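We emphasize that the prediction below concerns an isolated chain of 211 residues; any contacts that depend on oligomerization or on bound cofactors are therefore not represented. The input was used exactly as deposited, without trimming of termini.
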Amino acid sequence: AMEYAERAEAAAEQLELYRREQGGWRGGRCTGEVSVSWRPSTEFDGNLYRAEGVLLASPQRVWDCIKPVAGGARTKWDQNVKDFEVIEAISDTTSVCRTTTPSAFMRIISPREFVDVILMKQYEDGTMLSAATNVEHPLCPPQSSFVRGFNYPCGCFCIPLPGEPDKTQLLSFFQTDLGGYLPQTVVDSFFPANITGFYSNLIKAVKALKA
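Result of the prediction step, given as a token string:
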């Protein structure tokens, strides 16, 4: 359990470093809802994506939609999350989880499974962080019906905006090796589109919660 907790802490520290990193991001895709940029990952042979957008809801409400808990809202609105289960709770804030994803990108990308240790953390300024990275777990051997993918330090910061209680800055980092034998062109076009979809579905989910 120690080892899982340490990996989760290390992932959170890594995200804090990414958050402070000013230079080196390549401008990507901008919609009215989110701007996505990226740079080559130092963790694996792929990209680290950074996404930023402001949502018209309190940080707590945004957090309620994205927090990684069993039976949480995310399986309902996030089209990339088919199933989410907690394999082992390490502490109140840390757990090992398995996420499965449906086939994507006109079925070019077959269903995937990810096993991660996830840490939830709250900062003094009210920012909430969910950080994750891949682990192996004895209760979760690879399954033949899924391709095992690997998340490297990734997650979301829900950041309160001073004087704007009904707005939240959501800063997210995605760093995923999808595994399998996918052409790099597919991977490179999948992620930016996927991330903008994540934000627009989240915005809809937050609005629905408000209603």
